Amino acid sequence: MTTKTTRVVSGIQPTGGLHLGNLLGAILRWVRMQDETECLYFLADLHSLSEYMDPAERRSSVREMAAALIASGIDPERSVLFPQSAVPAHAELCWILNGTARMGWLNRMTQWKDKAGKNREGASVALFDYPVLQAADILLYQATHVPVGEDQKQHIELTRDIALKFNADFSTDLFVVPEPYIGGGTAARVMSLRDGRSKMSKSDPSDMSRINLTDSDEDIAQKIRKAKTDPEPLPDSADALDGRPEAQNLVGIYAAINDESVDQVLGRFAGQGFGTFKPALADALVALIAPIRSRLDELRRDPAELDRILADGAARAAAIGAPVLVKAKSVVGLTD
Ligand code: TRP
Predict the structure, then answer these.
(1) Which of 190, 238, 260, 285 pairs as cysteine with 200 (C-beta 3.0–4.6 A)?
(2) Going by CA atoms, what residue is nearest to atom 8 of ligand 1?
(3) Are both 171 and 294 inside the same structural domain?
(4) How many domains is the chain built from?
(5) 312 and 242 in one domain?
(6) Rounded distance, CA 12 to CA 67, Å?
(7) Residue 274 CA, ligand 1 centroid: distance in Å
(8) Same-domain status, 96 and 153
(9) Ligand 1 atom 7: the closest Cα is on which residue?
(10) Does residue 246 fall inside a structural domain?
(11) Is residue 243 helix, strand or coil?
(12) Which residues contact 254 (CB under 8 A, 6 or more apart)?
């Protein structure tokens, strides 16, 4: 994917307190993709309305997340970075696509089923409609590729179905049918440092379970020193880590930081214990996080500059999306 005829669009829900799981799971892939093609990245604040969030927390999370993305290497000059709600065309196109999406399609979405659980009657309409807004995010910019994790693939499939049905119903080729994109190098599913079977999460009550982008070098070293492991030495192949979730997690983290495979890492550490591996991992983590932490500090001290960057991103995004919305309105007969 190296030509300029490709365009990447992706969004991330604003939650305060970014951690290593967000960084290695999504953000560093976004950063690497900037070298491959034109990228639009947004803070999905409209999506966040699908579940209750304190308004002050929503406001601060959007800024915090934007700062963390820039600190991690999203370059707002090269890429277009903006809050979703600052470009009203997302909501407008979503409403148009609501005429195309089918109840039956949305009813089959596993994220809807998981999040609504047994209480469908009490779930918000926005939670049900979430995938249609996601389709609008993508189709508005005629994205060719959408970098997402495994859990979002079904939403990309739905976006394709909506694009195809809209194009067929209105005899147009307006919408580009996007592909999920599994590129940008190694992405890791980062697990809790206390339990290798549950995902690293900002909602885990134990701060020792995660590495935050704001952790000091000492915090990081201590968390890795105390991370749960097993008494066995490291094996020489990835397969031999099966059934050792904590070991698998730590080696996976190391591999993702270095953009290497687990087998490559084990090639160097096979036969060694955690007494050797953990300090190497802590060093790699400190080298990764320390510069991000200090850029984040700077950005936090200048909220006006951050707002300027986001307003500039929103203006550029609006300009890219405008012709598509104009055409969509005309194709369905809202305008001439
Ligand atoms: N649903 C995505 C997630 O939870 C976030 C998202 C919203 C998104 N709109 C998008 C991702 C458009 C890619 C493209 O991760």
Answers:
(1) 190
(2) 11
(3) no
(4) 2
(5) no
(6) 13
(7) 37
(8) yes
(9) 11
(10) yes
(11) coil
(12) 265, 277, 280, 281, 284
**pLDDT by residue (tens digit) across 114-140?**
999 999 999 999 999 999 999 999 999
Q: Do 116 and 215 have their domain in common?
A: no
Q: What is the pLDDT of residues 301-322, one digit of tens each?
A: 999 999 999 999 999 999 999 9
Residues with CB under 6 A from ligand 1: 9-13, 44, 47, 134, 137-138, 146, 148, 152
Q: Among all residues, which ones are annotated catalytic?
A: 115, 199, 202
Q: From the CA of 167, how far away is ligand 1's center (Å)?
A: 22
Structural domain span for residue 308:
7-187+302-331
What CATH number has the domain bearing residue 314?
A: 3.40.50.620
Q: Are residues 139 and 231 in the same domain?
A: no
336 domain-assigned: no
Task: Give the model's pLDDT for residue 149.
Answer: 81
For ligand 1, the distance from its centroid to the CA atom of residue 233, given in whole angstroms, is: 39
User: Which residue's structure tokens are 């994109």?
Assistant: 181
Which atom of ligand 1 approaches the CA of 155 most closely?
Answer: 1
Query: The domain spanning residue 221 has which CATH number?
Result: 1.10.240.10
Ligand 1 centre and the CA of 336: distance in Å? 32
In this predicted structure, the answer to whether residue 90 has a pLDDT above a threshold of 80 is yes
Closest ligand 1 atom, CA of 9?
A: 14
pLDDT at 75 over 60: yes
Same domain, 248 and 101: no
Same domain for 168 and 218, yes or no, is no
Query: In whole angstroms, what is the distance from residue 308 CA to residue 20 CA?
Result: 27
- Distance, in Å, from the CA atom of 320 to the CA atom of 238, rounded to the nearest integer, reads 44
How many residues are given for the chain?
336
Higher pLDDT among residues 180 and 193, named by residue: 193
Say if 201 falls within a structural domain: no
* Whether residue 119 sits in one domain with residue 13: yes
Q: Which of 137, 146, 158 gets mutated to test ligand 1 (max ligand atoms within 8 A of its CB)? A: 137
Substitution candidate for ligand 1 out of 148, 157, 181, 201 with most atoms within 8 A of CB? 148
CA angle 260, 71, 211 (to 5 degrees): 60
Please write the tens of the pLDDT for every residue from 198-236.
999 988 999 999 999 999 999 999 999 999 999 999 999
Any domain includes 327: yes
In the reported structure, the alpha carbon of residue 263 is separated from the centroid of ligand 1 by a whole-number distance in angstroms of 31
Rounded to two decimals, the pTM is 0.92
pLDDT at 17: 80
